[in-house]
Amino acid sequence: xxxxxxxxxxxxxxxxxxxxxxxxxxxxxxxxxxxxxxxxxxxxxxxxxxxxxxx
Length: 55
What we know:
two-stranded parallel sheet, 2 helices, Semialdehyde dehydrogenase NAD-binding domain-containing protein, aspartate-semialdehyde dehydrogenase activity
């Protein structure tokens, strides 16, 4: 399956809103990147603990 086929099929589905908790960690940041590029999801919210404020 090539990229064109994948993106053409993505038009058949409405995008779902999603969020990431733990967004300052390495896994959270990776999820943000993957969701930002995903054709079926739109990144709606991110969250982190108070001790991660400003990161």
